[in-house]
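Response to reviewer comment R2.3. The reviewers asked that we include at least one raw input/output pair. We reproduce the pair for Cation:dicarboxylase symporter family transporter here without editing.
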Amino acid sequence: MKFSRLAPIVLILFVVAAVLTALAAYQVVALPDSVPMAIRWLAVASAVALGFQRRSITFWIVVSMLVGAEIGHDFPEQAVQLKVLSDVFLRLVKTIIAPLVFATLVVGIAGHADLKQVGKMGLKALIYFEVVTTFALFIGLGAINLTRAGAGVDRSGIQADTEQLATVKQTTADIILHIFPENIAKSVAEGQVLQVVVFAIIFAIGLAMVHQKHRAPMLQLTESLSEVMFKFTNVVMFFAPFGVGGALAYTVGKMGFAPLYNAFKLLLTLYGALAAFLVLILVPIALIARIPLKRFVLAIAEPVSIAFATTSSEAALPRAMEAMIGIGVPRRIVAFVMPTGYSFNLDGTTLYLSLAAIFVAQAAGIDLSFGQQLIMVFTLMLTSKGVAGVPRASLVILLATVASFNLPAWPVFIILGIDALMDMARTAVNVVGNCLATAVVARWEGEFVDNYVAPPLDDLAEADSALAHSAH
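Raw output as returned:
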């Protein structure tokens, strides 16, 4: 049966199963437990059949969550044993973070080592990126502390199996010293992500300062390492459905379905925070920079829609670049700012990570001071640089960072249950933020062409020549 025919059947089965389960639970209808359970398993089996047609990792993650939740609900004792699957997946993810962050940061910094070429434009772009992502970070922090979406999770069945954050009193000097590595191998082994980041930044600066004949081989090596780690991540993510299914089976077997309410609350918090970020930060920036708002919105509608539907910023990149050239941004600015922004200007991802990290602490019943929250989200903001192209990059970064802060991993798997819906929104905001960044930098450089009418050209080089002619 084709996907288009099977999908409605699966949806109907899940609705019927949910209704019958609810009616039986509230004793509205006298039904033997086996009837709603049989319909639920039939719905799950149909979803599995649908998964074989789609052959999408994201879809299989959703299917595995359904299977895991059903196993956890119907066979809680056996479901607890499936935690080993999530532990295996977590270990594989932890092996990714250090080489991936190191390679991508070194390439991102040393790869633009020609300061004469980058010039003032590069400095302005980086300042803009850091200011705007900091706003995103604080909006995320404010939103999650306001809604406290992770609070109230019943941890009675799971506390004995998880490590809790050690409440060690640290002085300001201790916190500062903890940022800097004394032995990079030790930092990697202990999962100290921020120390790896600091080492990578200093290494990249040193690499940028050496002669080209010495820099080129090392830069090529780190680029190769980066590409290999991207593929390594792809391979690990094939195990994601098993890890997620095992984690959800364990969580539901221990705590029931209550955590899913908190996940839905987190989803609403994210969408509200992203809307606030767009209205309170990006719109005023566009107005201050005198960006024609209506033209800008019409221009980015297509690439943002692509990003939202595919959850991939890269899929939207070519159309986004064409759209920015089409409203009056010179190609050389688009060519520098847009790709750099994909590493350093992840507004939606930064906001999401700040929400998710504090959600993990709240779900684990750990009260973090504002200073501890800042250190955690600052670490996330740094480690997220350069890995936007990795599937489930936010999961990799989040798992590694909460582990380095000695937080339990099980709340992350609760988040993963709604990650696809969250990913669409944050990816769309990433694209909006990067498009606006190119326009703002062009205005800042005095090269934004007002009232520019793009010719119907398919070739970017021809469009850029037309744009240069209009500017003069």
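The radius of gyration is 24 Å. Confidence is low (pLDDT under 50) at residues 159-170, 457-472. Further pairs are available on request from the corresponding author.
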